[in-house]
Design a protein that fits this description.
The structure holds two protein chains of two kinds. Chain A is mostly helical. Chain A has a single domain, classed as Helix Hairpins, CATH 1.10.287. Chain A is built from three helices and no strands. In chain A, helix 1 runs antiparallel to helix 2. The longest helix of chain A has 31 residues. The radius of gyration of chain A is 17 Å and the shape is elongated. Chain B is an all-alpha fold. Chain B has one domain. Chain B contains four helices and no strands. The longest helix of chain B is centred in the N-terminal third of the chain and has 29 residues. The chains are: A mainly alpha, B mainly alpha. The interface between A and B is large, with 51 and 54 residues.
Chain lengths: 95, 123
């Protein structure tokens, strides 16, 4: 059991590092991004990485409350991606 | 080797697989050199990466004795919305001329997203 718990702790640390690295790398693409489509894509990836961070934090602390935070982040991320893309396509979000 | 220990190992393996997919997707987002090519890399982050993390969360909740499966809701929502947002970003790329315009379809005149209705054609 102690070995399994240690393995879980190592896996949690690896996942935290991977998600943080993912945020940093997609922020680099957000700054560089030559086209506006790249910037929207980088923002979308950052939202999904933040969702993963919240889920892994929930596993780390053994708390169920983070589920609702993750669901809200998922919905707001989708809506904001669609709104940004639609603003660039049509020049207006709600016509 | 009880069920709890096996569950802990499965949680750890899912976490490691998910973080590997997340890293691959984000490195692809940074390294590819064409906007349409860049579009396909982060979809791995959205589906397999986060899906594995949510699966780990479900198994962990059974592991610590507080079973819950409502992470499946987030998984279903992400799997439904990921192609839609990818489609919107691809449309942005096509209309902003960030990529080559796709070749014309075999039967009809033009693609529907590039089609202009007759009453909207500028005179």
């Amino acid at each position: 059991m102690i070995l399994a718990t240690q393995f879980l702790n190592i896996a949690l640390a690896i996942t935290f590092i991977a998600l943080a690295l993912g945020q940093i790398l997609s922020m680099v693409r957000l700054v560089l991004g030559p086209t506006s489509g790249d910037r929207i894509l980088a923002l979308d990836t950052m939202v999904i990485n933040a969702l993963g961070l919240v889920v892994v934090l929930g596993i780390h602390q053994g708390v169920q409350i983070y589920f609702e935070v993750a669901l809200l982040i998922a919905m707001l991320g989708f809506v904001s991606t669609v709104a940004l893309a639609r603003f660039i396509l049509r020049g207006d979000i709600i016509e | 080797m009880t069920l709890v220990i096996i569950g802990t190992y499965i949680v750890s393996l899912s976490l490691i697989i998910g973080s590997g997919f997340i890293l691959v997707g984000v490195i692809g987002l940074l390294k590819f050199n064409d906007p349409m090519t860049r579009l396909h890399a982060p979809t791995k982050v959205g589906t397999v990466g986060i899906g594995m993390l949510l699966l780990a969360s479900i198994i962990h909740s059974f592991d610590i004795g507080k079973p819950s499966t409502h992470e499946l809701l987030i998984m279903a929502f992400l799997f439904v919305t990921a192609p839609i947002s990818a489609n919107f970003i691809a449309k942005v790329n096509i209309h902003r001329r960030a990529c080559e315009t796709p070749p014309s379809p075999p039967k009809d005149g033009t693609w529907s997203t590039l089609d202009v209705p007759e009453e909207d054609v500028a005179t």
